[in-house]
Please model this.
Amino acid sequence: MVFFRKKRNMPDGLWVRCDGCSSMLFKKTVEDGMFVCPECNYHFRIFSRDRVKILVDENSFEEMWPNMVPCDPLNFKDRVTYPERVTEEQQKSGLKEAVIVGKAKINGSEVMIGITDPSFIMGSMGSVVGEKIARVTEKAMELRLPLILVSGSGGGARMQEGVFSLMQMAKTSAAIARFQGAGGLYISILTDPSLGGVMASFASLADITIAEPKALIGFAGPRVIQETIRRALPKGFQTAEFLLEHGFVDMIVNRQDMKKELSRLIAYLQ
Model:
């Protein structure tokens, strides 16, 4: 006679699989390690609210313009209308839009900070994202504070807003230029992924550009480029390490060290 032990029910959500090394990891361990794999140092994609907890002093973040929402200038519709898609994304992500901005402290130093969120329409840049980035930059200039922008956009310019979205590239770039012309310190942090119109505008214009390890960074994705030029791309093309080697980024910093490194840079440069 063979006896089978009854399989104990495993609660959902206790384990996660690392996309870097395929290890099964205890979720609490990953969260305690700032969402970094302890086996291979893979940096998981995280939400903007989690990044606030990691980067700034506890309870110091004061969000600005939290209720701005996009309009539908083109009456755009694909599978659903644009307003319906925005509502879906708001319910799924808990955000009003793909960026949060505000004032915060990093080891006691006041900064203005903006963080794009890939969970909301791939972190794409529409009118609200561009407006918030421009406003937080202008506020940094007014208060004479360092500006830190964290990019995690895989969606580029938001197609549902057409040329209105493309205009945000010029608007955010102009705001950054005015800020830097006034002597402001701007630090850009590139996370996985940082692509499209965001990378072709404000994300690539910083005084200091920092990337997380193995982040995908570029304008078009590598698959699109390879299919367009019909040539094999170099190994590691568009990774943070490749771009550091070729001078596009200034440093690669592990997520656990990012707050300390930002504090050091602010103290030295501001």
